[in-house]
Structures are given as C-alpha cells and as structure tokens.
Fold these 3 entries.
Entry 1:
Amino acid sequence: MPFSFSPDDPTFIIHRGGKMEIAPTVALSSRDDLSRAYTPGVADVCLAIADDPSLANTYTWVSHAVAVVTDGSAVLGLGNIGPRAAMPVMEGKAVLFKAFAGVDAVPICLDTQDVDEIVATVTALAPSFGGINLEDISAPRCFEIERRLDAALPIPVFHDDQHGTAVVVLAALRNAARLLDRKLGDLRVVVVGAGAAGVAVTKMLIAGGVTGGDVVVCDSRGALYDGRPGLSGAKAEVAALTNAAKLDGDVTTAMRGADVLIGVSGGQIPESALAGMAGHGIVFALANPTPEVHPDVAVRYATVVATGRSDFPNQINNVLAFPGIFRGALDAGATRITEGMKVAAAEAIAGVVEANLAPDTIVPSALDPRVATAVAAAVAEAAGRDGVTR
C-alpha cells in the first residue's frame, strides 16, 4: 500500500527543492574576478597543484569537504529503501555538518549495493574530498567497506552508524557512572544487538575503560561467547573480546545482575529482563522511533535512562559526535580516525555537561553550540598524539 502524506505537512514543505544549495565564496562581479576564479588565472593554480598535490588542501575546498556516502540499504529504521529514498537523510546529514561544524558535505547516494563497486566508486571520488562519512550501509557489508576504504585512502573514513553511536554511548556512560559514583571498569554491561552499532559500541566501551570480560553482547539467538557455534566475522571477533564467563542463553539470562543495558537492536526487551538487573542501574534503549524498553518502564528499574529520541531526556544522538570529529580530523590534516581520537571525542562530549550532571542530563543537547568546538579540539589533539597527521 502506498505511503500516504500531505504536501502541506510542514515537514514536507521544508523538504521541497531539497535542504541545501551550493554558494560561491568569491565575488564574480567583474572581468578581473572572472579571470582569477576561472580561466585564465585558474590554470596557474592547477599547475601548482599538479607539481605539489598537497597544495589542494590550501587552494581548493578539499580541506573542509566531506562526502556523505550511502547505498540506501539500512536507512534509519526504514531498512533497504534504496538510494533515491535515502537522499533526504543524506541531505540532512550534510546540513548538520555545515550548521554545527562549518564542514561542507555533499550527499552521494550510490545505485549499487555491491561491495567491490562501492569501494571502487568511493576511491575514485576521494580526491574531491578531505574525508568520507559512510552512512546507512547494512551490516555486515559496512565492516568490509569501511575497512577497505580506510586501508586504501589517505583521508579519514568514518562509518557514523557504527562509530558515531559508539562515541556518544561512551560519553553518556562515563557521565552516568560519575553520577552514580561508579567506575567504568566495575560495571557489568549487556549490549542487545550485534549489528554495526552493537559491535562498534562494544569495542568503544572496552577502549574507553569497560572491562571486556564483563560485557555480554546478545543477538537474536542469545549471548555471544567465544566458541559459540555458527559465529563468524565481526560477531566472532566481539565474542573473543567479551563474556569471560561464557554466559549462554537469552537476554533475560544475560541481564541478571547487570548494571547497564544498552539496546541497539530495534527489538523489544521484556520488562521481566529488566527486573533482574542490579539496583541503581543504567538503561540506554536507543532504537528509534520505538525504544527497546519504553522510558516509563525503564525508570522502574534504572536510575539513569537514555534513548535515541528527542522527546525524552538524555538523547543519544550522533550529531553530538560526527561534526566535531570531522572538523578536528580535517583541521589536524589527519589521515585516519583512530580509537584514541574517538575516545577523546567521547571525553569532550561528556565534559560539556560534567559540572551539571543529573539523571536527566548525562549528555549535552544536540543543539548545544559548545559540543562541536570541544570535540574538534580534542580530536585534533588526539590525532597529533596518535601520529596520524600530515
């Protein structure tokens, strides 16, 4: 049945004609202006760059431009809706880049879901950009695409559905633990969902100080553990890092005595599972628009609750991470984005509200203008520390 909508709906009205445009940064009001911006003057700039390709960072937009690339295979919670239907999301992402961090971004929706074709296409496009933001590409293909592009390109490659979510989750958990006077290394954590976000969140938490053996990751078949039959790829890698006790069974079993629940699955978690958690718990139910556990239910069992929605407190929103991460990486001339840069971003996000922590304030607002600046500075410093700057 066709989707029904009203063209007079305010949301549709602001999307008419798209949400972005290209504007010149130089005047074109005289013959001299034209001769410098274009022929013949532009030829001298081209020859200088041909002689020294690094000059492209100074004399073109590359140093502040990012490609936002998707194949439309995993858009929001809508699934595989294809490249044309994905364009409003990619435009929105580009607008957020510009509004929050002054990064120019171009939405690129590819009409292929073949891994080799995507890698080849993005590689061919890469000289036009200073970074690649991969978006809404389904697992497990997203892991291979990011890995291959990261190895092939001398510029940062970042799959936001994985790492943006993971960075903000780590920031939120740092502050939730501070609020409850707990240490990250003492927390027992259950991650429900072993797709792109679940894998990245797990690795990020471990990099940020959570003890890997005290993390249990669950997929639709139950808890992952090293040696569970049928595991391969990213799931096998995560299983080897987590669940030292080799807990087996469903989500309810995994959550007995757990301090933290992080939902990134899109499925529903029964209230009975929450009842088995330790007291003064932490619940991040991040599926959007329908959280794995409704906040009104979660607060019966947890002291701190977060979701992915803007109409509840503590919104875990990727916009807290990706604009500042790319701004910092571009400013530093980073060739890649390291784990250290991601951890630094999480610490910066957490630090913005550290002085005003409350159960309903463990992360800043997505509209807080301090966030991108703080994240960019921390990421640029970490890039230098990690030795990935040009």
Entry 2:
Amino acid sequence: MNPRDRLIVALDVPAAGAAHALVDRLAGHVGLFKIGSQVFTAAGPDLVREIVARGDKVFLDLKFHDIPNTVAKAAEGAVRLGVAMFNLHSLGGREMMEKTVGAVEKTAHEAGLEKPLILAVTVLTSLNDRDLSEMGFQQTTQELAAKLAAMAHKAGIGGVVASPQDIRSIRKACGHDFAIVTPGIRLSGGQVEKDDQKRIDTPRDAIAHGADYIVVGRPIRLAKDPVEAADRIVEEIALGLADRK
C-alpha cells in the first residue's frame, strides 16, 4: 500500500455538514474516513452512502456487540453500505464472530460487492492495567489483547483494532497476514486537551512496530491546517515503513 492508504481519519464530529467539510478538505490526502458512533447517531447511514458514492473508503466504527444473530444482521447492513471495513467487539465471543464472518461472505457474494475487512476490537486504548483489574480481569492489557486477537483470528476475522503497545504480542499470536488497525496516535511533542487516550504512540513508531493502519482524529481535526497535519503524518508513516527494513 501507498503510505497514504494506511492513514484513517476519524470523523468524530457532531453533524453531517462538519463531516463532509473534513472529507472535502482531506480527500486524496488520506486512505479512509472513520465514521463512529457520534456522527453516525447524528447523520445515520446516508452519510456513509454519500462518502462511499464519491469514491472514498469508509471504516464503519460502531463496535457491534450483541447476540450472534443481531451482530450478523448488522454486519449484513454494513456490507450493503459498501464500507471498506467495520468492527465488532471480540468480547462478544467466538460464535458471534464466526456467524458474522459467514453472513458477510454470503451477503457480499449475493450482492456482488467486495467483502469488507472485519476487525475485532480487543482492549480500548482508554483502558490500562488498573482499569482491567477493576473490571475483574487478571491479565494485563497486552495479555488480554493477544488472547482476544487469537480468538478472533481462529474465528475467521481479518484483523483487530489494538493499541500500539499490543502490536508485537498480537503479531506473535496471529502472524503477519492479520491486519492491525491502531488508534491512540499522537504526534511527537503534541498535546490534545482533555485527552482520554492512555496507551498512545507516534505514527512512525506505531507503523514501525507493525501496525497496518493508524487511526488519527484530534491531531488532524483540531490542527490549524488539517491537510498539512495529514501530509505530515503520511511522511511519518513512510519513515515507519522504512524503519521496519
């Protein structure tokens, strides 16, 4: 992939108009646009259709987590929207993930659409070891992320959403033909007001450590020049790819 194709910009904005404004500015400078629960709740599936119709790729970040049949049906809807990737929570279990994989393959085939990449959410980047302990988990974030990723891999899921600190353990558990999408990205020396991300890394280091894609929201969205910020991150991605060699 071109380094630009590895950059996903989070459209974490309150309404469709703001989302379209960002897409207009950043189209051609980034690989995908992430539509999460905030803007999806405000603008609905029409926003996804509109962005896809203009030729841009969408990562539908709704983190489906429910009984197997409900998640499988939601996934069928995501396929018909034409998204390039979407996610579900690995904590929904193996059966939920397997049923979703089957539903996606069947729906894509019948509709003549390209099958989207299915991603399993492991441990949110806003959580750390202390948070997991309070929730009753005995593992560290890295241990739990690797375990959930391995279960997703066995269920036929194509990749995971995981923090930069979890990349190496997931690679060890799942190999190199397993996509890792990494949020919690912050520019070196940059600060984000009221940041709720606890496990973060720079674009260059996340890619160098093995991330296939990185998700960037506030460092681009809140920049004085979002295009310049995106282009700078793409340059860091290229450096990270060179670091791997």
Entry 3:
Amino acid sequence: MNTGNFFIGKMKEYPRIVFFGTPDFALASLQSLVDAGYQVVGVVTAPDRLSGRGLKVHNSPVKEFALLHNLPLFQPVNLKDPGFYEQLKSIQPDIQVVVAFRMMPKEIWSMPVSGTFNLHASLLPLYRGAAPINWALINGEKETGVTTFFLDEQIDNGNIIFRETLPVGDEETAGELHDRLMAVGARLIVKTVQAIESGNVPTLSQEAMLDQEEIRLKRAPKIHKEDCRIDWNNNALTVFNFIRGMSPHPGAFAELVATDGVPFYIKVYKAQREIIPHTLTPGTINSDGRTYLKVAVKDGFIILSEVQIAGRKVMDSLSFLKGYGFHFV
C-alpha cells in the first residue's frame, strides 16, 4: 500500500481554524477543538430553518455552541456568494475543518495554506456518500470507523490522513453507532489538527487503496422516504439489519390495516429475529394479541419490539397490541 507524507511546513503556534458543520455529529468535533485550546476564528453553519409546531426558528447544535462561546458565526445561504468568500478570506484561516456539512466550492476549500479536511463516518474509500452509518448497518458490516481526509474536487475522494476502526455490535442501531462514531471522530479531529501543526501529515490515496487492496467499493447514497419501506420477502437477517440501520432516523416503515379497514403506517425502531421454519406468507402477522408481535419473513420471523404510529409516541409492542387490531398489507 502506498503511503506518503504531505509536508506543509511547521505552522505557527496557534493555527487559525475555521469550522464548518451543523448537527450534533459536528458539534462534538467543534467542542473537542475548543476543549483542546485551539483558536477557532470562525464557525460556518447552515441557515436557520423553521421547524416544530408553529414553525419556529430553532438554532442548530453548532450555532448554539458558537453563540454560547462567542465564536464568530457565519450562515451563508450560498457558499459561492462573493460576500461570504471575502468575509472568510479576511479571517485568514490556516486550517478549515468540515464535519457533516454540504458540498463546498473549490474557492472555499482551497483557501487555507494548510488545507481543508473533512471527517467522514466510514472507513474510506468504503461508504462514500451522505448516509455511511445507515448503509454500514443495512449491509451487516461487522466493523466501520471514521476517516479524516483532505478535500478535493470529488466528493469523499481526497487523500486520507487518518482512519480509526470500530467494531459494530450485532444489535446496534444507527443511532447508537452514530454516537460512538461521533465521540471517536471528535478525538480524531484533534489528532489530525495536531499532525497538520507538526508540518508532517501522513496521507494515503484512496485510489491507491482501491487498486492495491481490491476493495469492493460500497456506497452510501442519501436515503429517501421511498427507500425506508420494509420488504418482508427478504430473509430475517436482511430485514433485521434494515430496521436497525434505519433506526431512529429516518425509520423503517410498513403499512398496516386496522380492523375497521383503514390503512395506516407504522415505523419499527427495534426488533429481533427468529429463524424457524413456517408456512406463512411473508408479511403475515403472528401474534397472540397480548404478549408478542411477529411478522413472517422468508426463513422465520421478525419480532417487533418498539414501534410508532404517525402522530403517536414510540411504544413497545405490548402497548401497541393493547390498543390496535390490524393485519399487514
């Protein structure tokens, strides 16, 4: 495997860092930089959005942190806006750090002398794309991790700086894995900045990895609503991995029909699998109406543990059975 060192020259004692990010996953990394004593001279986050009941403005986690710590805050609608470019240039960043942010134009990411690097929640070059945590679980991976890499013209394709591997729990959900990767990634952010400070950054070409290791490239495209429907015709392991890979967001769903014939949707957040021969058609409910709720799949059953009906709270299957009569469509 080809490795190399990217020499950028030893930086001054306190590099000027601009941070790009919006959700909780990014907040942990920003927090780690501040806790490590780094000079964050700018925070760039998404514009405010209306959400919740009454469509009120809710600050993103990164914005809340920036306001609390009096960090210079920018919320450009268009990253190609010349006004934003000039503002950013005037800050004179030495390093730009990107975590869970949108695609950036070259004139922005190429601005710092020491480069712009991104934290990605997979072991690149595997699972390039918007939903690496979800797809790793959906595909039943036994390990995943986080990667820092320098940005270039192609999405998630730049030279790798560091990778850190984590085992995946057999029943771990996307939400649980997200939180573990978030913590590991925050530490890796600091390690990466320290390497850049030293002036000797180890880098590795993703294309070289693909050529030499013959990795089968797996991708992680954005997940849309229509991608979240459970297919009961699959085997138990496939359905089980699909449910945990979608939990809690965006949530795997199925369509139910109440005893009055009115259809409604249900999301499944937690489940178990049972491998056992049966003669039921996949998608058929198997339940005593009181203590268990199973759905037939090709080679057994999926036991529903935690579900939600639109407009209702998340509930365990026993609470669900008390209140609803149904069969699957």
